[in-house]
Design a protein that fits this description.
4-stranded antiparallel beta sheet; 1 helix; globular
Length: 70
């Protein structure tokens, strides 16, 4: 089942650099969202203070946060 075009997907990926959101997107598939997260880490992970976060919008839970907080 696909979502209506004006409805964001369940999985939200955000790229921030220096605390500012520079890219974000919503996907209906967790696998697609994880692929986007990995791509953004590969493309932008070298930037100082870059952070990429995947959130399950329905559950309101962070699924992945890169780099991992230790």
């Amino acid at each position: 089942m696909s979502l209506p075009p004006d409805t964001p997907g369940r999985f939200h990926v955000t790229l921030t650099v220096d605390g500012r959101t520079v890219a974000e997107g919503w996907w209906g598939s967790e696998a697609v969202a994880r692929g986007k997260l990995a791509g953004w880490v590969g493309q932008y992970g070298h930037l100082p203070d870059a952070r990429v976060t995947l959130v399950d919008g329905d559950a309101g839970a962070v699924l992945t946060d890169w780099p991992d907080e230790e």
